[in-house]
Amino acid sequence: MKTADYRGILYNHNAGFFSMNIAKGLPNALSYAIDRESIVKSVLLGYGESAYSPLQLGEYNNQDIERFKYNKEKAKDEIEKLGWIMGKDGVYEKDGIDLEFEITASEDDAVRVDMAKVCAQQLREIGVNAKATITTNLDWENQDSTIIGWGSPFDPDDHTYKVFGTDKGSNLSGYSNENVDRILQSARETADNDEKTKLYKDFQSEMTKDIPYTFIAYINAVYVGKDNIEGLNTDKLLGHHGVGIFSNIVDWDIK
Q1: What angle is formed at CA 142 by the lines to CA 134 and CA 129, rounded to 5 degrees?
Q2: Residue-wise burial string across 29-60, b where 16 or more C-beta atoms lie within 10 A, e elsewhere
Q3: Which candidate, 167, 187, 185, places its Cα nearest to that of 175?
Q4: CB of 102 within 8 A of CB of 145?
Q5: CA 104, CA 46: separation in Å to the nearest integer?
Q6: Torsion angle of alpha carbons 167, 211, 222, 238, nearest 10°?
């Protein structure tokens, strides 16, 4: 079943590599280096689709935003525009600092572990010394980056405001964008759905100028059930971790 449950690389702006001024602008450049389609095929075994937005699978999606499609040469060009120079060891460096960071993943989530490994490999192919680090406990305050999971097909405010708003409760990356804050505040306050739709599309456009995550993929939920159950709504778009499968359970029947 399709879900609005996406995975991406969260860049930590509070500490580590991406908190340094030297790393400013890199998330956008690095996003071109991720081959999402190959990750869907290999890691998800085809059960999912490439992602470019946190609201991609809802009615508020903006299809016209920059999608950061896989392009290794574009990734290199964007990195070099930021002043990074390829070193003799094949790794970009700037002001004596290598373009080097960790992508962490929790060991109890095989999909995130595999995504961290594949993303690190793809980044190394363009001259980024990325390392996948598998851990029992994620250090949200000090890690460089991590494979994150979020998503809601329901009210978009439940997802965007707390995740991308400055200093909000689920903003684990320390991302801060004044224009995003203003747009999301207005979107949660309006009762006009046309205005809300416009605002969330504006949010996505603004987000791509200074992207908080490298969006990787939406993940299908795969369930196993007895074949004598009838009435399951398999067309419903589910939420994070497959939330919503039981939404119409009153209509289910057992043969």
Answers
A1: 60
A2: bbbbbbbbeebbeebbeebbbbbbbbbbbbeb
A3: 167
A4: yes
A5: 23
A6: 60
DSSP, res 47: S
Tokens for 136, please give them.
Answer: 């029992």
pTM exceeds cut of 0.85: yes
241 is written with which tokens? 């971790």
Give per-residue pLDDT as tens, 224-235. Answer: 889 899 998 888
Please work out, in degrees rounded to the nearest 5, the angle formed at the alpha carbon of residue 244 by the alpha carbons of 42 and 161.
85
CB of 11 closer than 8 Å to CB of 172: no
Note whether 22 and 94 are within 8 A (CB).
yes
Are 216 and 119 in contact by the 8 Å Cβ rule? The answer is yes
CB atoms within 10 A of CB 217: 23
- 3-class secondary structure, 74: helix
Closest C-alpha to 255, from 229, 237, 235, 233: 229
Residue 98 identity (one-letter amino acid):
D
Q: Are 26 and 10 in contact (CB under 8 A)?
A: no
With bands split at pLDDT 50, 70 and 90, how would you rate the model's confidence at 10? very high
pLDDT in tens, 137-191: 888 889 999 999 998 888 899 889 999 999 999 999 999 999 999 999 999 999 9
Residue 101 pairs in a beta bridge with 130
Question: Both tokens of residue 149?
Answer: 């999971």
Helix, strand or coil for residue 76? Answer: helix
